[in-house]
């Protein structure tokens, strides 16, 4: 395999990475998700958009297993994972970033990525100190390069800018052999230059790694996605290409406030 994150294993499975059928999630009397049916092909890059409270993050939490669906089923590369715990979904190649950074400030960049790679490797429980030829060290270096953090290799995570920490979160999602990644607002708080870097990082991911991105910045979301799913009040109300979604009058009325420049 070639590309900036070479060394990550290619995905194997059916035509669809994710298949949600009638997925719902209730919190008492509140319906956060209602009858969500969604198919995302292997290797596809999808944006899920919607105003605050549309159910986007709840959808991610249901896919990753943080919340169990109250109805419906979820399949990952053809396997029913509806009842699987989070760690079993991770073992099968599902990854996720979060809106709020969850990083260890006292570790260096390279050590953080190495530990992420080590944590999903088969040798994660080994008591032997990893040597210089440890395969996960080389993988960590490749991932660090893929997310443009080479110059911050030995810097402490706590000393990184907000944008660099977001890049590091992308690196952690690439640890191991990811088959599909959920990106939860990765551009939040980034400067225009950092957003351009993020777009480049996402568009240069290996072709076999599909992803869904939740993003309020349409200039980021519509540049990295092949298809867009619009949510409103816990339901899917429109799907299409970025151009179709951006020009849709109902989308403009609900999400864009009448237009988008």
UniProtKB/TrEMBL annotation:
Keyword ATP-binding: yes
A Pfam short name: BCA_ABC_TP_C
Keyword Ribonucleoprotein part of the UniProt annotation: no
Keywords per UniProt: ATP-binding, Nucleotide-binding, Transport
InterPro entries referenced in this protein's UniProt entry, alphabetically: AAA+_ATPase (IPR003593), ABC_AA/LPS_Transport (IPR051120), ABC_transporter-like_ATP-bd (IPR003439), BCA_ABC_TP_C (IPR032823), P-loop_NTPase (IPR027417)
Occurrences of domain ABC transporter (ranges): 18-258
Gene Ontology molecular-function annotations: ATP binding
Name the UniProt record assigns to this protein: Branched-chain amino acid transport system ATP-binding protein
Organism: Labrys wisconsinensis
